[in-house]
Design goal:
alpha/beta
Length: 497
């Protein structure tokens, strides 16, 4: 057993870099992709056949929509139907998304129309230094279309509050459609900038007179200068930006805080912290050359988009992303001749129930942030289940299956934590309180696989600026790495049919 030891801040500092580079799910997936590639994970495509690419002893990853990513490492002793150790997390967070027609102007101000995404604490978005990030679809010189990531570093937007002298509210309330509208500058300043500037006139947008446009030109739907800024970030001309998906983000960087640097102040802790910990744990678990020599299973992470809005999209946890991946992997042959033309499917046909066997022996850790006890609202927490930051990973339990944890899973995770020297905490909500949920229950029901919900404790969940424990980052990485390393052995010891 690994002795319990005080974690360092190395993992926390690495996480700060990860979250600052990831203002959107597209960027989070890109950040994870680069880390995986550096660690030797080969990129494969969801759309391609895997028959001659995926092999025991190999490490792979692929993306869907650029906002979800799956990565896995196949043990050298893998056989069809063997178990898969899985960790699921999500890449999205509540935010404000730029509307398809965002051009607004009122009382001398340039404004940008936005739409709420998820269940954010929207009052926290007021008076912040905001910018835009996401992906743009651009037209290339050969006439094809490709995506480009966009992240404007400088603050260009702000949602100002009304002065207290003009409205003395006891509780801050506002209309999300008309009063949660960011300003982007002054009309007069934009007129001065564009005065006599022929390049700012986008009325033609490189189109001939007979070029039919089903939609209004992008510079008619959005402020031309916004389009120019997006084009500059995408390294194309404004006329080549065809469309984009952009969200607002807070330009203030993540940092450690507290008297002793024991806290993390950051955006998107929910759930980029668990996405980071899952990715790091997988990479760390296969970092040594012999890591997969005695592994009989597969180690897998799946980072989904759209958890905050219900997961019912092609790249969400309620899609076929994980089931289809598991079906393709479950029949992977144990031995093969590298020169053979036998296909993956032909070999898998001899194990007609390999998929079902794999599901029945696999285990999913649903990794999503948990609630820390709040010192100003202690009555909101169940008296014996009050997680604290930097006291270890939180196991989430709910009698009404809002979380998927049960006792066999808890026994497994406790042994995994014992070997890693990581403390654990338990959380349930009060009977007179509502309870959130995660991707755990929906994936558990869809797969029939054993599942447990856990996460690190945090405050201010769904705020634009959240608070977590700096030492909990390493705790989670160590726990999840231990899960990957020890699951194949542990799975045979905890039998509940």
């Amino acid at each position: 057993m690994a002795k319990s030891r005080q974690p360092s801040l190395n993992a926390a500092n690495d996480f700060l870099s990860f979250v600052d580079a990831s203002p959107t799910p597209f960027h989070a997936v890109d950040s994870a992709h680069h880390r995986l590639v550096t660690a030797g994970f080969k990129e494969i495509k969801d759309r391609d056949p895997w028959s001659r690419k995926v092999r025991p002893g190999g490490k792979y990853h692929f993306t869907r929509n650029g906002s979800s990513i799956v990565a896995f490492a196949v043990g050298k002793k893998w056989k069809a139907g063997n178990p898969i150790a899985m960790i699921g997390a999500h890449t999205d967070s509540p935010c404000l998304r730029v509307k398809p027609v965002s051009k607004r102007q009122n009382d001398g101000f340039i404004q940008v129309g936005v739409e709420t995404y998820g269940g954010g604490l929207w009052h926290t978005w007021f008076d912040r230094d905001l910018s835009i990030a996401g992906r743009a679809m651009v037209k290339t010189q050969d006439g094809s279309f490709e995506r480009r990531l966009v992240k404007v570093q400088r603050p260009i937007l702000r949602i100002p509050t009304l002065a207290i002298h003009l409205d003395r509210q006891e509780t801050f309330s506002f209309n999300k459609e008309t009063q949660l509208l960011p300003i982007a500058g002054l009309v007069a300043a934009e007129l001065n900038r564009t005065s006599g500037d022929a390049k700012s006139n986008h009325s033609g947008e490189a189109a001939s007179e007979d070029d039919y446009k089903p939609l209004k030109a992008l510079s008619e739907r959005h402020h031309p200068y916004v389009v120019e800024i997006i084009a500059e970030e995408a390294r194309v001309e404004p006329a080549d930006v065809v469309d984009f998906e952009l969200v607002l983000y807070d330009t203030q960087k993540a940092c450690t805080g507290g008297l002793n640097g024991e806290l993390i102040f950051s955006a998107r802790l929910d759930n980029l912290m668990m996405s980071f910990c899952s990715t790091t744990a997988l990479i760390d678990s296969v970092s040594s050359p012999e890591a997969l020599d005695d592994e009989s299973g597969i180690r897998l992470i799946s980072l989904f988009d759209h958890e905050e809005i219900g997961s019912r999209t092609a790249q969400g946890a309620d899609s076929n992303l994980l089931p289809a991946t598991l079906r393709r992997l479950s029949g992977l042959p144990a031995a093969f001749d590298a020169s053979s033309d036998e296909s993956f499917d032909d070999l898998a046909s001899t194990e007609s129930d390999a998929y079902e066997q794999t599901l029945s022996t696999s285990f999913l850790v649903s990794a999503d942030m948990a609630h820390s006890v709040h010192p100003n609202y202690p009555a909101k927490y169940e008296s014996e289940h009050r997680p604290e930051m930097n006291k270890g990973v939180v196991i989430k339990i709910n009698a009404n299956a809002r979380y998927a944890t049960n006792s066999p899973g808890l026994v497994l995770l406790e042994e995994v934590a014992r070997r890693a020297g990581v403390p654990l905490q338990l959380f349930v909500v009060r009977n007179d309180s509502s309870c959130g949920s995660t991707i755990g229950p929906m994936l558990s029901a869809a797969l029939g696989a054993r599942t447990l919900d856990l996460g690190n404790a945090q405050l201010s969940m769904h705020s634009i600026r959240e608070t977590g424990g700096a030492y909990d980052v390493e705790y989670a990485v160590r726990l999840l790495e231990s899960f990957f390393v020890h699951f194949s052995e542990m799975e045979r010891k905890i039998l509940v049919d």
